[in-house]
Structures are given as structure tokens and as C-alpha cells.
Amino acid sequence: MNENASGQLVVVTGSSTGIGLATASRLAAAGFHVLAGVRRQADAERVSGPRIEPVILDVTDEQHLARLRERVENDPSGRPLRAVVNNAGIAINAPVEALSLADWRRQFEVTVFGQVAVIQALLPSLLSSRGRVVNIGSVGSRVAMPSFGAYSGAKYAMDAVSDALRREVASLGVKVVIVTPGAVKTSLTERGLEEADRVAATMTEQQRSRYGPLMRAYRETVQGWARDGAEPAAVAAVVETAITAGRPRTRYTVGRDAGFMVPVSRLVPDRVLDQMVLGQMKLPRR
Ligand SMILES: NC(=O)c1ccc[n+]([C@@H]2O[C@H](COP(=O)([O-])OP(=O)(O)OC[C@H]3O[C@@H](n4cnc5c(N)ncnc54)[C@H](OP(=O)(O)O)[C@@H]3O)[C@@H](O)[C@H]2O)c1
Fold it and tell me: Which positions fall inside the Ketoreductase domain (predicted)?
């Protein structure tokens, strides 16, 4: 148990499963009082535990956000907000051409505007506590694989938002950290595959023949990630470091894949990266 943690609040969005659940558990074990965002009452009952207080939070719901702000600003024990972990996310994967604008908007609504809304709701508290924003990014925010246009687009956007925010609030005492995992074994894979099947069912015949091989490659690639990916606990450990380190890095990667791809993406020319990405998905290279 971390002496400094007790008596401080942390908000973790998307705590029902995966990285969010592992993070909420780890931070509670470290002694923080965790306000764990979940969308359903059944999940609230399941995640509730010592120092884990569930809060109903859909990051696209203004009333939920207002209630969260109120809860944090009027903590019954007067505890300061140490950090918000912006983790909630969805993955809607399909070729740029075949994804409806409604799906593009939904991806950005949750993964960009939802995260920005959480930051806006909690920044006043973080400014007064000199707390931290920890945004869960993705290696997809540095390398956009085919069929990941919407997901990566949203993650790239949040990377830029995080950079801008870090430069806005550093002198005001708030630190902003991006945690960039590679593949992690969570339900995001299964949920992403369901979304991809739903979108595939709406494709025209021509789109199906154009993108059939890509969609099969996508499926095999993410199934491989689900088998070989890091455990959610590995991300949670890095989040704890991001929150507790005296001078946290601006960015952390998690997993060997992210540790390799993120720096490589900065060094190699686009066309070389194209070949690497297509090779990784076992798609024809040009
Ligand atoms: N898994 C990976 O390989 C991987 C890699 C890099 C980055 N990430 C990122 O890690 C984060 C967590 O994902 P995960 O892998 O742990 O997946 P996950 O197990 O599917 O968890 C996603 C979480 O987000 C919540 N969520 C979805 N829409 C929401 C909304 N509108 N409002 C509030 N919460 C919402 C889900 O809640 P419900 O249960 O209510 O739907 C769930 O708690 C995401 O930002 C993801 O992009 C994941």
C-alpha cells in the first residue's frame, strides 16, 4: 500500500472489464479511493469492493458527467482528485469506404469527445489538486493498420489532444501522460469482431469482393493479438507508475509490440512502414 495514495481519489472510466477493471483493482490495492466508471448497475455491483466505488458513467452522457463532477468536487471526506484515467473505449474496424458515417461518429463520440468531456468535467478539480490526466492511447495512435481507420483516427486525435493539453496545463501543475499499449488480452477483440461482422453485413457486393481478403486478415490478426497480447494487469502497473512517479514520462508504451513499433514508426519512411504493416497482416505487398 502506497502511503501517499490513501486519502486521494482516482477516477477510472470504462472499469467494467479489461484494462479499466485491472487498473481500478490495482489502484485500489495501492490505497487510492477509486471512482470506477461503469455503464450498468449489474457491473456496478460486480466491481464494487474495498476502496472501489462504482459510478454510473457513460462518457457520452452529459448528466452522468455532471454527476461525476459533483461527486468529485463534493467528496464527503474532502479527498483531492489525484488522477483521471481516461480508459473507456470501443473499436469499430472496417475499411474507410465501407464504414458508415454513423459508425465513424460513434467511434469518435466515445473515444475522442467522451474523453475530452471527462477531462473538461474534472480539470477544475485536477487544477486545484495539481493532479494528473492519464489517457489510454494505443499503438494504433502511431501506426494505422488497414481497417483501423476509425479506431486509429480517434486514437491519433486523442494523442494530439493529450499533447496540446500537456502543454496548456504543465505550468498550472497538472501532468498529462499517455499510456500506449500494444495488443492486450481483453474483450475489445471480441467486441471489435462483432462490430466488424455487423459492418461487413452492410457492405455492397463490390465492397465485399474488394475488402473480403482484408477483413479476413483483420480477423486473423486481432485473434492473434488476443492470444499473444499482454495481460491487462501489465497496463494497470504502468498506469500506477504514471500516477505515482515523481516525474512521470509524457508517454509510456506497454508490451514488446508497442515498444518496437512506436519508435520504429518515427524512424522509417511511410512506404517502408506500409510494407511492414501489410506483412504483419499477411496481406499482399506492392
Ligand atoms: N485491448 C487492446 O488490445 C488495447 C490496446 C491498446 C489500447 N487499448 C485501449 O484500452 C482501453 C480499454 O479497452 P480494453 O482493451 O480494456 O477493452 P474492453 O475490455 O472492451 O473495455 C472497454 C471499456 O470501455 C467501456 N465503454 C465503452 N463505451 C463506453 C462509453 N460510451 N462510456 C463509458 N464506458 C464505455 C466498456 O464498458 P461496457 O462494458 O459498459 O461496454 C468497458 O468498460 C480502450 O481505450 C482501448 O482503445 C486496448
Answer: 8-187
Residue 191: give its domain's CATH number: 3.40.50.720
Active-site annotation holds for 151: yes
Residues 235-260 have a mean pLDDT of 97
pLDDT digits (tens, 9 = 90+) for 48-75: 999 999 999 999 999 999 999 999 999 9
Residues having CB within 6 Å of any atom of ligand 1? 13-20, 37, 39, 57-60, 87-90, 110, 114, 136, 138, 181, 183-184, 186-188, 191, 225, 229
Residue whose CA lies nearest to ligand 1 atom number 7? 138
HSE, side-chain direction, 13 A CA sphere, residue 275? 5
Domain membership of residue 266 (yes or no) is yes
Residue 198 has pLDDT above 90, yes or no: yes
Distance of alpha carbon 34 from alpha carbon 23, whole angstroms = 9
Residue 286 lies in a domain: no
